[in-house]
Every structure is written in C-alpha cells, then in structure tokens.
C-alpha cells in the first residue's frame, strides 16, 4: 500500500494526547492525501471532556493516543496549548471539518458512508448531504443502534459499500473506542467520529449561533439548550483548573 507522504504532523501533547497543530486548510490537505493513498486513519475531534475521560480511563487514553490524527475541536484545548506556550494554529471544529472533506470529495467523487444516530436522523442526513454535495457518492448509511453482537454484520455492510470516508456518530463513551477497535477491519481510509453533527445536519437540532461561535462558547449554547449536559460539562472547569495547576507538565511527552 502506498504510504502517505512524510508530511509529519506537528503536534503538541496535552496530558499525553498528541493534538495536531495544523490549521483547517493544512488538515484538509493532509487528509486529502490520506484518502488518495488509502492509508487507514482514525481522526478524533478532541475536546477537554474527552481529555478528562482519558485521564480517568486508561483504555480510553489508549484509544486517543493510538489515533492517527487528533484535531483540537474544543476551544479549551486551543486555550491550553496556547497557555502552556505551544499553541495550535486554530480550532479545527469537527462539524466544519466534515463539510470541508465533503467539499473536497466532490472533486474526486469520494464515496461516503454514514453510521450512527437514529433511523430518521441518519436518513435525513444522508439526503441533505447528497443534495448539498452532489459530486460525492453517499454509498450507504445505517443508524447507530446496534450491539457488539452485530458488529460483524455492520462491518460487512460497510466493507461491501467500499467508502473512502466513514463518519460515525454514536454515544460519546463508545464512538472512538468502536472506531479504534474496528478501523483495520473496516478498511476505510478515513474514519472520523462526528458526535452530534448528524443531528445538526438533519435539522433535528441547531448549531450555536455565530455570536456564540465567535466567543468560543458553543459549549455554553449547548448547555443552555440541554441542561442535562451539566454533569458532563463539569469536566470543563476541571480541565481548566488542572491545566493551571499543572502548567509545567501539561505538554510534556509521556
């Protein structure tokens, strides 16, 4: 298999997790090359909640560190890298990265498979993405409600569809571990967890208004709309406190 050109990705470790320092433009160019060469890549859109989860769960940490590319999706990660003196170029939001990859995919007639969310949401997401990016082939989609006993069936379905990109939206506790466990069996060049992106694309929920995005407060908008997220959101101030408290060690390689 042809190897990706040695464009070594500049990274900064945040508590042992190697976050890319590339901006959106360079990230998309790198992943374009990944798809072209067919080398398996798991892309994780990392945020402080995921970092804190990894610090508490060694298996989750292993998944995060084993991913071929971790981009700084959360503004807290961008702040931490800057605060500790090794800044990343910018926030690379997973929602925006998905759309950038779809845009590039029109040039190459990339095949895309969508996995996750509910049957209604995934069907509407597939329909809307196909209309928005007619040059891309939505080669398959399936909801995310399946157990480990159905993994073989799901993997076979994806392999049969032969996508270039696989976007996965499942529960936060199993999205990245599931991809990490099965990425080589899936055989898809680029596999990326996209969280709640399908809900936004399908129209089920709304993305934070531009004002919140500019203030880097999309997390606050989500919390206001979904108060049940409060417990998860406690990880944000905990992350900030940990970075401030351990500033000298945050970016040390493990």
TrEMBL record:
<keyword id="KW-0961">Cell wall biogenesis/degradation</keyword>
<comment type="similarity">
    <text>Belongs to the glycosyltransferase 26 family. TagA/TarA subfamily.</text>
</comment>
<dbReference type="Pfam" id="PF03808">
    <property type="entry name" value="Glyco_tran_WecG"/>
</dbReference>
<protein>
    <recommendedName>
        <fullName>N-acetylglucosaminyldiphosphoundecaprenol N-acetyl-beta-D-mannosaminyltransferase</fullName>
        <ecNumber>2.4.1.187</ecNumber>
    </recommendedName>
</protein>
<keyword id="KW-0328">Glycosyltransferase</keyword>
<dbReference type="InterPro" id="IPR004629">
    <property type="entry name" value="WecG_TagA_CpsF"/>
</dbReference>
<keyword id="KW-0808">Transferase</keyword>
<keyword id="KW-0777">Teichoic acid biosynthesis</keyword>
<comment type="pathway">
    <text>Cell wall biogenesis; teichoic acid biosynthesis.</text>
</comment>
<comment type="function">
    <text>Catalyzes the conversion of GlcNAc-PP-undecaprenol into ManNAc-GlcNAc-PP-undecaprenol, the first committed lipid intermediate in the de novo synthesis of teichoic acid.</text>
</comment>
<dbReference type="InterPro" id="IPR034714">
    <property type="entry name" value="TagA_TarA"/>
</dbReference>
């Amino acid at each position: 298999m042809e190897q990706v050109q040695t464009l070594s990705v500049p990274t900064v470790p945040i508590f042992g997790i190697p976050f890319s320092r590339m901006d959106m433009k360079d990230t998309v160019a790198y992943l374009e090359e990944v798809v072209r060469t067919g080398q398996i890549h798991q892309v994780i859109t990392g945020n402080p909640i995921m970092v804190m989860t990894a610090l508490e769960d060694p298996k989750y940490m292993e998944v995060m560190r084993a991913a071929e590319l971790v981009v700084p999706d959360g503004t807290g990660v961008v702040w931490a890298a800057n605060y500790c003196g090794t800044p990343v170029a910018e926030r690379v939001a997973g929602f925006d990265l998905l759309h950038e990859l779809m845009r590039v995919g029109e040039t190459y007639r990339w095949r895309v498979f969508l996995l996750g969310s509910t049957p209604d949401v995934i069907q509407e997401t597939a329909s809307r993405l196909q209309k928005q990016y007619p040059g891309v082939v939505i080669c398959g989609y399936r909801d995310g409600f399946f157990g480990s006993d159905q993994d073989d069936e799901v993997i076979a379905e994806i392999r049969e569809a032969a996508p270039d990109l696989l976007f996965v939206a499942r529960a936060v506790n199993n999205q990245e571990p599931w991809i990490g466990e099965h990425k080589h069996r899936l055989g898809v060049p680029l596999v990326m967890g996209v969280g709640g992106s399908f809900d936004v694309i399908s129209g089920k929920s709304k993305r934070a208004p531009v004002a919140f995005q500019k203030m880097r407060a999309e997390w606050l908008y989500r919390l206001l709309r979904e108060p049940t997220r409060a417990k998860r959101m406690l990880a944000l101030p905990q992350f900030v406190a940990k970075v401030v408290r351990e500033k000298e060690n945050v970016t040390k390689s493990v």
